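Quick one: structure tokens for this chain, please?
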Amino acid sequence: MRKIRVLVVDDSAYSRRAITKMLESMLEVDVIGYAADGEEGIRKIIDLKPDLVTLDLEMPRMDGFTLLRIVMEYSPTAVIVISSRSEDEKVFRALELGAVDFVAKPTKGVSEEILTIREDLHRKVRGVIHLNLAGIVRREREQERAAVAAGRRTSGTAPYLSVAARTESAAPRPAGRLEVVAIGASTGGPPALQRILCSLPGAFPQAVVVSQHMPAGFTRTFAERLNRLSPLEICEAADGDEVRAGRVLIAPGGHNMVFERQGSEILARIVMPGTEDRYVPSVDAMLLSCAEVYGPRTLGVVLTGMGNDGSKGVAAINRVGGQTLAEAEETAVVFGMPKEAIATGVVDKIVPLDRMSREIMQRCGLLSDVD
């Protein structure tokens, strides 16, 4: 198998050495060069044509955001952001611009953290093999067009809502029998989730719960960002939070989110992952719990991502009479999770990302089939 050719772009000599060393320990990777700033990075991307770029965001001369814009416009290339935890808000902006994923930057002198990052970096680099780069470029350009059509700049300061979604939020139709929409995602998930959640109306009559594979420390910023952009109430879940209509709970990084019925209320429970949970927060753990607590009143949605997390969950939802959706291959950044969910044979419908929010609203009673 041809090796993955990687270019490392970072202004810190220590970070360049650490990242290069981690990558060179992978038999399937060939580090073909490095750059100390964005300008040098652009030149080397053009000259060397790497399969993957690891990218720092804060650099002299040209920062990572400018490099991302230029690369995605003129020479689309897979990019993984390697960022310090103090830059987590910027990470999500980079994902909007077309980066496929991120890992936390290694901390000098903390060997335990470096080992953890290495495992995460290796997994995400291997995911490049299955990457739908055309889908990333299409998604980013569609988002720019939608932003222009909505009359805003893509600075992340105003809601990203279609005209239809604004109108429907004023007078929602009867909700039907569904009570919860449970959405799972991994690689490519943050922009996909933003697109869906920012297109749902504020008067949404179901609860929404989300498990996005993400390390501890980033999900709070992710939830806060989405809360600013969406008409829904969106927050990082805490143990004991009530799951209720119109509210979106996002599983905290490094933990699983499950549910418990107490009288007339359903509460979120934040628990440590089990040894069987390869990816965390676990989509399967969330969907299995929804099937147990909500039964046929569950709509499960599996979006882009590596691996098979979510496949057990959709099967469980099907067994109790609930409904399930999976993202279509043409829009999924990585088709692993949706593909495995579809392979169970129980997914009710395969839906491209640009039609997913409408499909969810139809199934929740907000739109008719002819709208």
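The two ends are 48 Å apart (CA to CA).
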